[in-house]
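Trying the structure run again after the queue cleared.
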Amino acid sequence: MELWSEVRRRVLTGELSKRQACQKYKLHWDTLKKILGHSEPPGYRKQAPREKPVLGPFVAIIHEILEADRKAPTKQRHTAKRILERLRSEHGYRGGRTVVQEEVHRWWQRSAEVFMPLAHPSGEAQVDFGSATVVYRGGERKAAVFVMSLPYSDAVFCQIFPRECTETFQEGHRRAFEFFGGVPKRITYDNTKIAVAKVIQKRGGAFTREFLRLQSHYLFEHHFCLVRRPTEKGHVESLVGYSRRNFLVPVPKLDDFEIFNEGLMEDCRRELDRQVRGKPATKAELLAEDVRAMLPLPEKPFEARRVEPCQANSLSLVRFDRNDYSVPTAHAHHAVMAVGGIERVRFVVQEQTIAEHLRDWDKENVHYDPLHYLALLERKPGALDFGKPFDDWNREHFDSVGGK
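Done. Tokens:
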């Protein structure tokens, strides 16, 4: 650049003639013309694409393979290595690997999707579930991570649950609304089976009864992404990862999900003091604007629960969510309605609760209430010594309720 600038200055100011400049700086006449015609070096300008004598006949085949991959499962698409193997075995290609890799890379660059930046009005939210590993009561397991985000303020609410299901979906909403202090006017989801019973025309469709009950209670408007288009809710997608990296590292060790979730709420509150790049104020200040645009919280509390019809068997046990729970023996062989919440599961017959147990989020466990079997014990007193419901029951407690 220094030589370029000096030649231009001396020639164009008349200090040197063009012939003198060529002699002094040992320049070709065409080079001098280029220097005088441009204030800076224009760089290399290729007149035509470089020919590919070896790969050229196979480029169309590579493009055909990559185009067909669009309809294949994501994890079963061609790599450049696999394309090279097919070119050699099926089409007689004798060239190298690098040029194939470069052609694949060029194709992806040309065909990569471009996204439109989205405007996010205040008072709207996005919801998603992720997953994270936790050590629960000494054993490693997967937990469901519920995240609700407000794109306008960048506020985030996070909770973990034993599993992603109807009642945790509902409970996550209830807690998020109370945390933010209002109900978003519009919430964006993917096409989760918890909310969408049947997808119609790739966006939403026939909704589940429990999702409609949640919506009817809080009165928010729903918006479902196109199938396989989670980028429509990219804000919450990124915050699921952010929450996992910042709130769940190192791997949490917990004995009680509810106690741990109280700590997660505090993490979300502290997060409100942060100011995100490109935002004019802190998350807390922008959240106030979000809340002003939201719907008020309903006066009546919402019950997060899943209702399922069940049948009590001959052992007076009812199976709900992969575990068995006892009911009074008078209801053995009869239909009952199971109502599963986050902490408890109750069994109802004709709108009357006949039994209630602590909710078990594991599987294949049996939970007895010995009181449910007292009526049967009157007819079969010998069962006291061998009855499974009385294995761990304190005899003093049995005496206190009249058993002999």
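The chain is about 35% helix and 20% strand. Worth checking whether this holds up in the mutant runs.
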